[in-house]
Write a structure and sequence with these properties.
It holds the Pfam family SRP54_N. It is a peripheral membrane protein. Helix content is about 45%, strand content about 10%. It is of the alpha/beta class. Strands 3-2-4-1-5-6-7-8 form an eight-stranded mixed sheet, with helices on both faces. Strand 2, helix 8 and strand 3 (about 260-265) form a beta-alpha-beta unit. Helix 3 (about 105-125) packs across helix 13.
């Protein structure tokens, strides 16, 4: 029994010694320093002001919301008005000069360039003896004026017969005699009205053709003025897509008189533009559609075929009421060659003679009518906007022979 108690005591002593060794080794390890009593907290910097990004934040006196003066609504708040955009004035619509009697008003301008023909004939016919040499001179005068061979022979034969019957000739009688014979050549019974009123439904369709440099696009614009002056509404088709300036020019003419212009991309299909112009004219209820075509050279077969295509495409909407051929009156006999080729392609119904106030010979009127069998319907007598006039045979002949 004593041995057991002794063993237990020894065990307890051994365990106590071991525990003291463990606690001693732990105490030898250095513990981390205790945290300070009050932590050191750094305040965030103040918000920088405009332009103060590089400066040290400043201590500012801060006010409470009670100390801040707020608006009470008694004073209105100034609101900045938006800037006033000045609107551009609309394009001023011009009122074209009436067409009635326009050629008579321009007669002085016409007579300045054409009097040589009339005066030359009157001088020759006033000779006391009209021998064969004199009649040959009369023929030469007419041929030089681009009247043409066949019309010249007709006129000379008519004059010779009338002079024989008349006998004694006073200046007034000679002037009357020459006037009558020239009127026969020019023709007073031809229908010279530009047809823009179709029998079935609107719009009337007019196609304008011609060679480069004849004034075709300008004539189309001036014709729009003539129609507007007569109370018609007009749509313009800029089917000359090979020249951007042509479409711009035509649109400018249209804007002056309030006519709408249909145009396509540069180099586009002319037939497509013409088709769209007629379609637009129908939808707008316009009276007339004027189609300006490219000023193609009459010697290029492919281009002439394309002109025929434009005509066929337009006629899918409605038949053409007019095909006007624009000729430069100063080109003389070369103009007749152009007229012949165009007539084969698009069936010309009327002629417009431009630059008749310049160096043109008046006889071209007779020659081109004989060549095509269609009348001269309009003549250009200057560069002014209203210098395109309906052709009146009496006023034209009076300008040729003078007062």
């Amino acid at each position: 029994m004593d041995i057991v108690i002794l063993a237990v005591v020894i065990a307890v002593v051994v365990l106590g010694a071991l525990g003291g060794l463990i606690v001693g080794s732990r105490r030898k390890k250095q513990l981390p320093p205790p945290p300070p009593a009050t932590p050191d907290i750094t305040a965030p910097p103040a918000e920088p002001h405009v332009g103060d990004e590089a400066e040290t934040p400043r201590d500012e006196e801060r006010r409470t919301i009670e100390e801040v003066d707020l608006p009470d609504g008694s004073t209105g708040i100034a609101v900045e008005e938006p800037p006033v955009v000045e609107e551009l004035p609309p394009t001023e619509i011009e009122v074209p000069e009436p067409t009635a009697g326009r050629l008579i008003r321009l007669r002085a301008r016409l007579s300045r360039s054409q009097n040589a023909l009339g005066k030359g004939l009157l001088t020759l016919l006033s000779r006391e003896h009209l021998d064969e040499d004199t009649w040959e001179e009369i023929e030469d005068t007419l041929l030089t004026a681009d009247v043409g061979v066949a019309p010249t022979q007709e006129l000379v034969e008519g004059l010779r017969e009338r002079v024989k019957v008349l006998g004694t000739r006073t200046p007034a009688e000679l002037r009357g005699l020459l006037r009558e014979e020239l009127l026969k050549l020019v023709g007073t019974d031809m229908d010279r009205v530009v047809k823009t009123e179709p029998e079935t439904s609107k719009p009337g369709i007019v196609m304008v053709v011609g060679v480069n440099g004849t004034g075709k696009t300008t004539t189309t614009g001036k014709l729009a003025r003539v129609l507007v002056a007569d109370g018609r509404s007009v749509v313009l088709g800029a089917a000359d897509t090979f020249r951007a300036a042509a479409a711009d020019q035509l649109q400018t003419w249209g804007e002056r008189v309030g006519a709408y212009t249909v145009r396509g991309p540069e180099g586009g299909d002319p037939a497509s533009v013409a088709f769209d112009a007629v379609k637009e004219g129908k939808e707008m209820g316009s009276d007339v559609v004027l189609i300006d075509t490219a000023g193609r050279l009459h010697t290029k077969t492919g281009l002439m075929d394309e002109l025929g295509k434009v005509k066929r495409v337009v006629e899918k909407h409605a038949p053409l009421d007019e095909v006007l051929l624009v000729l430069d009156a100063t080109t003389g006999q070369n103009g007749l060659v152009q007229a012949r080729v165009f007539a084969e392609v698009v069936d010309i119904t009327g002629i417009v003679l431009t630059k008749l106030d310049g160096t043109a010979k008046g006889g071209i009127v007779v020659a081109v009518q004989r060549e095509l069998g269609v009348p001269v319907k309009l003549v250009g007598l200057g560069e002014g906007a209203d210098d395109l006039a309906p052709f009146e045979p009496e006023a034209f002949v009076d300008a040729l022979i003078g007062e």
